[in-house]
Write the structure tokens for this entry.
Amino acid sequence: MENLEINNLFGGIYKGRKVLVTGHTGFKGSWLIYWLHKLSAELFGLSLDSPTSPNHISLLNFPHVSYIQDINDKEKVFEILQKVNPDIIFHLAAQPLVRFSYEEPVITYLTNIMGTVNVLEAARSLSNLKAIIVITSDKCYENKEWIWGYRENDVLGGKDPYSASKACVELIVSSYRFSFFNAESYNNKHHVLLASVRAGNVIGGGDWAADRIIPDIIRSTVENKYTILRNPMATRPWQHVLEPLSGYLTLGWKLLEGKKEFANSWNFGPNYCNNVTVLNLVLESQKHWNKIKYRMDKNKQPHEAEFLMLDSSKAIKLLNWEPIWDFGMTVKYTIDWYKEYYENGHLITDDTINNYIKDSKSKHVAWNH
């Protein structure tokens, strides 16, 4: 795909911009920072080392400045942010796993809550900063197990430590926005717009994290084992990783332009038809890699929500954003990535992004017109 065409995406706002992505060694962070690389941004990452081998960020091997640092170290975070002094921060660094949060609740709360506070506190002192986007989760909502999608003004909550921590982060972001980055005093007392974003169950190539269904499927398949399904009838809003990232980048575009009406919370979830059971996700995956096989786990599991769905009407109407790939395409591009990697040694991250950009043209989304 022509560089000129790529650079014009999102109004060309990211070309030459200094962008800091926290959590850039993680699954979503690695896709985001690579897409920003394609958009010709000047890139900086702040994160722990990737906990998996292989890992996506190392395989991509593109130019960026990487700071390997725990966000719980307030002084180091302050020092790094002062040094980088970015135009925009995408804050993704977090403990991202529900089941791990049961095993290590203190680490989960510390990282997700105080780590975010550390980043926001450091951000207050930056002279060049114009925008911050804090990535939380669809699990920040108090789950009532109903059939409707959750909207941005619904009640926050969470039964497990991970979900509760993400609800807390949303409250913290709201507090900082009111106290220090208030839209009413924008361009007077400060020059920063702060927003938070929530996505569905994100899947795609390059994820090897523990206790996630797609990495579990891939590990089992590569080892010629059965994938054990712990909660096969749980329904999740599956979406390809590029879907919410296109939303985050669209929102960042508006904030960098100084449009303070966008400095609030946003859902970037999939279409209703992408709300599918874990079992159906596995069955769809088998269509693209016939080596995949599974069986049910009858042991009692820690509580996880059975049904959770996001309402993205606000982003669709006000940001002119919408999901591009349906459930079938979401699974196809996910499984194809791993199949190409393991069977042919090819990394198709770039091709996947290019295909997503091409397919978005027919949707007339704001970021690709």
